[in-house]
Amino acid sequence: MSKSALLKSSIAKKYWMAMTGLFLCLFLVGHLLGNLQLFTGTEEGRQAFNEYGYFMGHNIFIKIMSYLTYASILFHAVDGFLLTRQNIKARPIGYAKNNAAANSSSSSRNMAVLGSAILIFIVMHMANFWWAIKWSSTPFPLHTIELDIPSQMPGAPQQKQEIYYTHDFSTQPVPKNEDVIVKNKTELYIKSVDVKIGEGYKDMHSLVYAFFGHDKSKHGFPANEFALLAVVGYVLSMLILAFHLNHGFGSAFQSLGLRHPRYTKIITLTGKGFAYLVPLAFAVIPVYIYLTK
Amino acid sequence: MKLNLKIWRQKNANDKGQMVTYPIDGIDGDMSFLEMLDILNEELIIKGEDPVAFDHDCREGICGMCSLFINGEAHGPDRAVTTCQLHMRKFKDGETIFIEPWRAKAFPVIKDLIVDRSAFDRVMSAGGFVSVNTSGNTIDANSIPIPKHDADKAFEAATCIGCGACVASCKNSSAMLFVSAKVSQLALLPQGKVEAKDRVLNMVKMMDEEGFGNCTNTGACAVECPKEISLDNIARMNREYFGAMISAE
After folding, report:
1. What's the total number of domains in chain A?
2. End of a domain among A161, A181, A200?
3. How many Å lie between the alpha carbon of A270 and the closest alpha carbon of chain B?
4. Which of A84-98, A213-227, A230-244 shows the lowest mean pLDDT across its residues?
5. Is A250 in the B-facing interface, judged by CB distances under 8 Å?
6. Do residues A257 and B243 lie in contact, with contact meaning Cβ atoms separated by under 8 Å?
7. Quick one: which of A200, A203, A155 has its CA closest to A43?
8. Domain encompassing residue A260
9. Quick one: A35 and A121 in the same domain?
């Protein structure tokens, strides 16, 4: 390996930009596939999404991928900052008149600004969801269901019992009453004898529906009075992401030297499609949640 | 044709410099941009003022000396031409034309519109050559069989005249199009393959040391290049560099 390698040279810095960027494109696909499950607001949809959330939080492969994603975001941002700083230094005196629109796209010229906006979005997005789910000190409501209790006598009024939807649900339902307490955020214990009787699902589905929902409190989550602002902010962020990807996707292949008369057209077309369809699919979800009753 | 010229005037490398307005009249559409500047300079000399200093040499688009950032674009609004080939018919009567020097840290202004482009020479000295034995038994280049396809691509890259329009147009003042053309013209030929790894590593190292910016792949360089050097060359250099980086000793 030569001494100029890895991070020192301008070209190597661009390799890292390209590789982390393409990895983050893959992450977007995975994240989107998960999010698409939010289109069902029914009880089945809620169960499916919370089961998916549990899987994502308890799988070693997903855990490794998540750390790779955090590292990629950080590296992409820091590397981008270093590159931009050098680029600014490379032209200490600018032009009195510069008709840059004649020779390049506006997204290609504003990657650093777009990227910074996306970084701000990621911080807010993680504060709203990731932090609330994982680290917040306020107890996170677990998934509960109301079950019909069969009447003992014919003609008696139907009774309902609220139970926890648990990981080991198939073996025994866990009733929600004063005897059952939650420990370590998700573990269900019988208070009097201190015995673990099950593990509940965090109700991420309801968190999202309360966050983006139009004045909807959901299963212990208060209604978000700024829901409209959250939806508008989210949609705008996806638009910014689309512009960033519009240049970034194809640019990554060019930086890695993957350019060939036979494939460049396919890469460009795929890039444009990816750049607009993926953020569009992301953006439709909160709008759908806001508009549905 | 009447024009309003806004020209960058700077006495020397240490002067701060500023835009100065010069009205000019009697310009014909068939004149080249440099002829128009010649007329302006004659008027300035008659008036006893310092003429505008600008680079020029062959005036037929092959030497790469004439530069000038005209109305926000390198070599002006026309495509695939140098400033000496730019006709005044590309401008409207009464138009205001901004004329500025190339702007880059690596291209410091010497006087008015003239910049020091010797950074390109130093990049070339770092590896833009083929070492040949001159002891008398040099092999004739034409005796080495080269596929026509490769020869054509190498020739296309070699049409780069080193004018610096790529650096001037790039928002980062990156020299990637120039350096990649110079790397490609040799990397594509058997004579150049021998020193290919050292060449790309050394030329890129020198390019970075000279203070050129990084490539954002905006593509502005290839659009403004008077010789239409392709972005394919930048991709090729990125491949060459990767191979050299992981295998060079």
Report:
1. 2
2. A200
3. 17
4. A213-227
5. yes
6. no
7. A203
8. 10-90+105-138+231-291
9. yes
Residue B148: alpha-carbon gap to chain centroid: 27
Q: What is the 3-state secondary structure (H, E, C) of chain B?
A: CCEEEEEEECCCCCCCCEEEEEEECCCCCCCEHHHHHHHHHHHHHHCCCCCCCCCCCCCCCCCCCCCCEECCEECCCCCCCCHHHCEHHHCCCCCEEEEECCCECCECEEECCEECCHHHHHHHHCCCCCCCCCCCCCCCHHHCCCCHHHHHHHHHHHCCCCCCHHHHHCCCCCCHHHHHHHHHHHHCCHHHHCCHHHHHHHHHHHHHHCCCCCCCCCCHHHHHCCCCCCCHHHHHHHHHHHHHHHHCC
| pLDDT over 70 percentage in chain B | 100
Chain A residues whose beta carbon lies within 8 Å of the beta carbon of residue B237: 11, 257
Are A122 and A168 in the same domain?
Answer: no
Highest mean predicted confidence (pLDDT) among A163-177, A179-193, B181-195: B181-195
On chain A, the residues whose CB falls within 8 A of the CB of B105 are: 89-92
A58, A199 contact by CB (below 8 A): no
Helix (H/G/I), strand (E/B), else coil: A219 = coil
Same domain (yes/no): A17, A125: yes
**Does the predicted interface ipTM exceed a cut of 0.90?**
yes
pLDDT at A173: 77
Instruction: Provide the pLDDT confidence category of residue B24 given band limits of 50, 70 and 90.
Output: very high
Cβ distance A103 to B224 less than 8 Å, yes or no, reads: yes
pLDDT of the residue at A21:
98
Beta-carbon contacts of residue A132 (< 8 Å; ≥ 6 apart): A140, A207
Q: Work out the average pLDDT over A271-292.
A: 97
Are A15 and A71 contained in the same domain?
yes
Full set of structural domains in chain B with CATH: 3-111 (3.10.20.30), 117-247 (1.10.1060.10)
A1, A86, A111 member nearest B246 (Cβ)? A1
Distance CA A166, CA A188 (A): 9
* CB pair distance less than 8 Å for B217 and A92: no
Strand B3-9 to A195-199 pairing: unpaired
Kind of pairing between the strands at B18-24 and A195-199: unpaired
Distance (Å, whole) CA A21 – CA A73: 8
